[in-house]
Amino acid sequence: MANQSIDILSKVLEQSAKVVEEQVDAQLSKLNEMDEDDLERLKERRLEALKKAQKQKQEWLSKGHGEYREISSEKDFFGEVKESKNVVCHFYRNSTFRCKILDKHLAILAKKHVETKFIKLNAEKAPFLTERLRIRVIPTLALLVDGKSKDYVVGFTDLGNTDEFSTEVLEWRLGCADVINYSGNLMEPPTATQKSGTKFKKVEKKTIRGRGYDSDSDSEDD
Fold first, then answer.
1. pLDDT tens digits for 192-212?
2. What pTM did the predictor assign?
């Protein structure tokens, strides 16, 4: 019985290898059949794609992407969100230490993910927005797509509930909301820099309740 299973497995592997080999041969044959005009057209298409990507990047940069910026008012918020498809907005408070931790990571991600706009707004200067978005815990990241709030990162619960989370973990969390182009595994957070005992809660849409601002830290005085 064992020998029969091994024979079957061997045949399956052999067939799979043959299929892959045939596909590679087909691609090579296709390339060999190309004349100079075909290769020139392929080159032109690639150049066109590069030009298009560069143009898109320049457009993003002209709208304030590529850097982590503070906006001064609620009016500015609506203008910033309106002109960009993907926006990460950090609602912060000067007296909350964890906001400064987020600032460091967001500044790094803003440069890496030019496709997304990264901004921050003092929650105490935005009473209408914080009420409309039901923001009660500081810090909170509002993740917006096409002008609408899609998800929230409330405090550090989704980031392992530790002040020492890595930039990669925050990047993963933003990727889960599809607010950045994330190339890693969305099924689980990065583990390379996690400390033992770090716990992650299941990522899901947040509903934020309560009155006044709560600080996401036991050591903070509100």
1. 445 545 555 545 444 333 334
2. 0.71
Taking the CA of residue 182 as centre, how many other CA atoms within 13 Å lie in the half-sphere pointing to its CB? 22
Cis status of the peptide bond prior to 190, with omega within 30 of 0 = no
Q: Residue 146 CB: number of other CB atoms within 10 A?
A: 11
Other Cβ atoms within 10 Å of 84 Cβ, number = 20
180 contacts 116 by C-beta, under 8 angstroms:
yes
Of the candidates 75, 203, 209, 192, the one whose C-alpha atom is nearest the C-alpha of residue 136 is: 209
pLDDT in tens, 26-36: 776 766 667 77
User: Residue for token digits 């500044």?
Assistant: 107
How far, CA to CA in Å, does 108 sit from each of 69, 102, 111, 159?
12, 10, 6, 16
